[in-house]
Amino acid sequence: MTFCLTMKVKDGLVGLADTMITSGTSCSTATKVIIPVTTGHHTFYIMSSGLRSLRDKALTYFQEVIEEETPNYNKLYKAVNAFAKQVRRVANEDKAALKESSLAFNIHTLVAGQLEDDEEHKLYLLYPEGNWIEVGYSSPYAIIGNTGFGKPILNMMLDYESSMEYALKVGFLAFNATKMSATDVNYPLDIVLYKADTYKIVSHRYTRDDLNKYALLWKDKLADVIRELPDDWMNTILKKL
Predict the structure, then answer these.
(1) CA geometry: angle at 58 spanning 119 and 143, to 5°?
(2) Euclidean distance between CA atoms 135 and 87, whole angstroms
(3) DSSP letters along the chain, please?
(4) Would you say the pTM of this structure is higher than 0.85?
(5) Category of 167 on φ-ψ map: left (φ > 0), alpha (ψ -120 to 50) or beta
(6) pLDDT tens digits, residue range 189-237?
(7) How far apart are CA 47 and CA 55, in angstroms?
(8) For residue range 137-167, what is the model confidence (pLDDT) as tens digits?
(9) What is the dihedral of CA 228, 229, 232, 238, to 10 degrees?
(10) Of 226, 198, 157, 211, whose CA–CA distance to 16 is shortest?
(11) Which of 43, 49, 39 is CA-nearest to residue 16?
(12) Residue 41 vs residues 38, 49, 113, 191: alpha-carbon distances, Å
């Protein structure tokens, strides 16, 4: 499985992706974040989940489009459409063979960034069929792969007005909740940041040793909060013991 998350807040974009790749009983490490070859005010990144063979093939095709045709995308949705075209191309090539092996064509993609004519930074969620939605202000994040365990934290704690620093903390806690609950999501953790209107993406890879002390701190703080919750409401049931 996969954990890929991007949050769109007022000041920019915050993305986190695990690097664990499973194939049968074997595990390996590979990045799930690609920053295509771009120039000038053409800045975006792609996160993907699903069968690795599908992801790699679609990304290779798309990289070739960018490098050989040098398209002049002035808005991010146009790059999303171009990538969607390559996803459909892979579907046409591989979907029937996958079906014969009882495998689903399951590539999901997050595309985030800002091109020169975008009025603000953008985040898109692309489905296996090649259609997409733009992530807006009311629910300022998109998550693909193993989605269930991190959503409660994101839904409770994140909003569009959150700072990038705060969003990164929330995103880490969402990853930590997923890692603790799923055997197919793990470190190292790739983090990408994009500050609005800068046309510059920065990234860093964190290991378990880098972040585990913060996960343990969160566990202790959460236990303290639970102990401090008012318990008068419990008397109704406890007195029945």
Answers:
(1) 55
(2) 20
(3) --EEEEEEETTEEEEEEE-EEEETTEEEE---EE-----SSEEEEEEEES-HHHHHHHHHHHHHIIIII-----SHHHHHHHHHHHHHHHHHHHHHHHHHTT-----EEEEEEEETT-SS-EEEEE-TTS-EEE--SSS-EEEEES-TTTHHHHHHH--TTS-HHHHHHHHHHHHHHHHHH-TT--S-EEEEEEETTS--EEEEEE-HHHHHHHHHHHHHHHHHHHHHS--GGGHHHHTT-
(4) yes
(5) alpha
(6) 999 999 999 999 999 999 999 999 999 999 999 999 999 999 999 999 9
(7) 9
(8) 999 999 999 999 999 999 999 999 999 999 9
(9) -90
(10) 211
(11) 49
(12) 8, 27, 10, 21
Structure tokens at 196: 């609005």
Q: What letter represents residue 151's amino acid?
A: K
